[in-house]
# Entry
Amino acid sequence: MANSEDKPKDAAEVSGGVGSITRREVLVGSAATLACAFVPLSALAFDGTAKTSSPSAQVLTDSERQTLQAVVSRIIPADESGPGALEAGCAVYIETSLAGAYQSQKPAYTAGLAALNAAAISRAGKSFTFLTAPDQDEIVAEFEHGKKVGDYADAASFFEMIRRHTLEGMFGDPFYGGNANFAGWDLIGYPGARMYASPDMQKMDAKIPHSRLSAEQLMHGSR
Amino acid sequence: MAPVNLPKTDVAIIGLGAAGGLAVLPLARAGLKIVGLEAGGWFRPEDHLPDEIRNNIRHWPHAVQKANQEIPTARVGRDGPALPRPLYHPMMNGVGGTSLHYWGQSWRLTHWDFKLRSETIRRYGTSAIPQGSTVEDWPLTYEELEPYYDLVEYTIGVSGKAGNIQGRPDPEGNIFESPRQREYPMPPLRHAGFADHMASAAKRLGWHCYRPPAAINSVPFDKRAACFYHGFCGSGGCPVDAKNSTAITTIPQAEATGNLKIVPYAHVIALESDDHGRVAGVRYIKEKQEYFQPASVVLLAGYTYENTRLLLLSKSKAYPRGLANNHGQVGLHYMSHTRNGVMGLFPFDLNRWYGTPAQGVSIDDWSDDNFDHSGLGFVGGGNLQVPMEAKPIEAASMSTFGKAPRWGSGWKSFVKENAGRWTPVWAQISTLPFEDHFLDLDPEVKDPLGYPVCRLTIGLKESERRAMLFMQDKAEQWLREAGAIATDKLPLVPIGLSTHAYGGTRMGNNPETNVVDRWGFSHEAPNLGILGASVMGTSGARNPTLTVQALAWRTADHLIKEWKSIAV
# Structure
């Protein structure tokens, strides 16, 4: 099994299609361990890239959504190092989450996004979305440092929450609507979710072909 | 609706996690009829997705989590500030409990841990015991527990390399461990590049680095696969059954005897006792129906917080202050491991992405009493460990080491270069019980059924701060030797809820200061046994699970041998 990932040999490994778990990886993995191990057959056959999605449920107003998109763009901007949070679907990730797992945090978003707009209007007479990037950055920095906006005193905790959620969207499994086209994983060089990592893949100088499958696709096939 | 009275069973066990799920095996093999009440359900291998959001960020949203409805509160000191209450309980419900997704680290304690008090006084004098500490020697020795450690290692499957077999040290293993009767049943988890890199650095420092033991298969074991090293093990269940949770080891073996009946989604609300002080059975709710399960013997095997809470909630004529609490000891002698570590940034890629945390390397040169503590102002020390496995959100949520902003293009280019170039070194220190650190019922916060949640009153003592700082210096030294160009030490703050929480039902010979006797049975209610880290009187400098399991087996063994006198 030496070098099986250092020098990709299967066309499938370099095609960007089944870029991660190759038939050989699974077979080597299972042969090296045990024949009765649970091996997701779908992972052998699946061909495709993860789908991106729009929010599975919309819980923000259009204006809130625009503000959210603008602020995640400042937390992780698109620039020479690659797509940013907006392009990766972080706003989709956050809104989808607010409709489900993060329901309880929806009021904090409503208040925080409104405060961003209030700060923008008092600075330049325009809502946050329509400010220049440097002006937006100054407001985000004020939030980071906990500056009060009128009666709103939760700027720092709102900043920490939206930063945390933006990172989840950027670097989490694409199943949840973020990390579109694996932009986040490509950014940091994470070689992707897979079912098996060979000994060579754990060498410090390993060149690992990037897997391009979500956990759902790896385990259960396309959904 | 009136409670349904069920037929009496020999043993009712509350909680089928690492402890309860282990104890059922010897009991079932002995022919006792057991009812296992578990708050969660069953999981299949295909439920265990390699998904950081599901496992690590949202803590298993696909599972019914009773624990998340009753998250304890925490405050720093009796009059101190409340700590923020987390959204998720650190432990989980399910057949197998948190052993479904733990790191699988399966260390033994050392002989010193069991005699910490007397050994410290012997070597450094009485004043070396920190003021206010209620620490006692354990009522048993390492040597008494050793056969049970061995049984658990060979039953569930633990990989590792012995460092001391019957007194013969082997530098391939941990030379500081106490003597074992034989080698581990499996070799250690396989080598990983960065772990080997850290081992070389430790060797240059003259430290003794070893690959730590884990309840994870390094080779096929008992018809289950070896680890796939896919890098979603921490807080993730194993899709190939290579992590030896009780759900795939002892529980199915116990079920196969026909003597274990598992009741999933059973929400236990109280233990009932009779006027003579014997436990009569367990009240629980399942699908909105209340049941009473009578039992000759009840084993309480919840997590540390729930063990104390259930006892305090179970008031009766015989136990007006809560079951087994007529001496007022339930909830006392609480402690937990602190969150302590140093992050190191390197000028090259570490490739820690895959593997499993326990696949890293460890150092015990600075733990226990393995060095001279004169003048240091603390007892014990810590185990250092570098884990493998860096999941992407965790990797990108890195410290910026003072070198970059926390967002924007500057941050983005920083993580682009460095998210794969940092590692934590964790330093778990020996913590001690103190008279003002305890668990009780929160006077205000209640669960959805109206029962108070558990409340932690904690702090960080000066001796612990010193130990943490001492260990941070060692961790930093190790990182620098390995080539780190920057380090970031975690702040020394008291932590609230912990996955390594100890005490509340401490084990000891003296009923005035302990809840259970040397066998794990209540000093007051003779047919009540308690399993879990809640019985431990010291934390040790390493993960508790194997010790919890060895103690659970020993308690079960005692029950089998003394069945006639305990069950009456």
Notes: Chain B touches chain A through 59 residues (CB under 8 Å). The mean pLDDT of chain B is 97.
